Amino acid sequence: MKGTSLVVSVVLFVAVAVLYVLHFTGSSNSGQGDKIERVASTGGLKIAYLKADSVILNYNLSQDLHEDFTKKQEAYTTEYGLKRQVFEKEAAAFQEKLQRGGFLTEQRAVQERDRLVGKEQEIVKLDQELSTKLSGIQQENNQKILDNVMEYVKEYNEQAGYDYVINGSNVLIGDETHNITAKVLEVLNERYEAGKTE
Questions:
Q1: Angle between helices 60-100 and 106-160 (to 10 degrees)
Q2: Which residues contact 72 (CB under 8 A, 6 or more apart)?
Q3: Alpha helices in the chain (DSSP H)
Q4: pLDDT score, position 141
Q5: How would residue 89 be classed by pLDDT, with cut points 50, 70 and 90?
Q6: Which of 62, 65, 66, 59 is CA-nearest to residue 188?
Q7: Within 10 Å of residue 195's Cβ, how many Cβ atoms?
Q8: Listed residue (116, 93, 89) closest to 103, CA to CA
Q9: Environment class of residue 62 by beta-carbon count within 10 Å: exposed (0-12), middle (13-18) or buried (19+)?
């Protein structure tokens, strides 16, 4: 037992000695650490932030594309709705005629049912096609907006010289002098409006 306690005492003594040395050698370098920290804060990374959601919401191109998309969506919905309505009327008429025994032969009833099933499949296919078209349009619109924003932010940064431009939606607290949202949005809208008049 005495041997074990002696080993533990030696280990504790070495640990305390290491901590003592680290503490005092660390304090002599703390002045250098402070200098490095100050240099990093004054001459370190230049970071700007852009509130992308705000740019997208207020960018005139984005608003026009959204308006155009909404019109196409309404037109597609109307087209689908009308075809669906006609089909439902025909299906109801078929059902009523079938219940009344209005078909001369069973074969004629089967033909009419098959025609309606085919028409319903066409309507389902139309719905899928229109949904795919709308999804494609929305994807193109999003890419166009993103490309325009990124192109200008790169151009802007060539003059500003930031190391990083980050999405400001994740910035909780930040110096407003590094918020480039308003500047970027202003130029994007000016360019878009100028491009519309050409």
A1: 170
A2: 133, 134, 137
A3: 2-43, 52-58, 60-100, 106-160, 181-197
A4: 95
A5: very high
A6: 59
A7: 9
A8: 93
A9: buried
The answer to whether residue 172 scores a pLDDT higher than 90 is no
* Single-letter amino acid, residue 134: L
Instruction: Give the three-class secondary structure for 198.
Output: coil
Domain boundaries, the chain: 1-44, 46-197
pLDDT in tens, 15-27: 444 343 333 444 3
**CA 14, 20, 23, 27 torsion: positive or negative?**
negative
| pLDDT tier, 144 (very low <50, low <70, confident <90, very high otherwise) | very high
* CB-based contact 59:192 (threshold 8 Å): yes
Task: Supply the Cα-derived Rg of the chain in whole angstroms.
Answer: 35
Residues 6+ apart with CB under 8 A from 45: 163, 164
Determine if the pTM surpasses 0.70: no
How confident is the model over 56-69, as pLDDT tens digits?
Answer: 999 999 999 999 99
Which tokens is 137 given?
């349009």
- Identify the helix (H) or strand (E) that includes residue 166: strand 164-167
- H-helix or E-strand spanning residue 48: strand 47-50
Question: Residue 137, class by beta-carbon neighbours within 10 Å (0-12 exposed, 13-18 middle, 19+ buried)?
Answer: middle
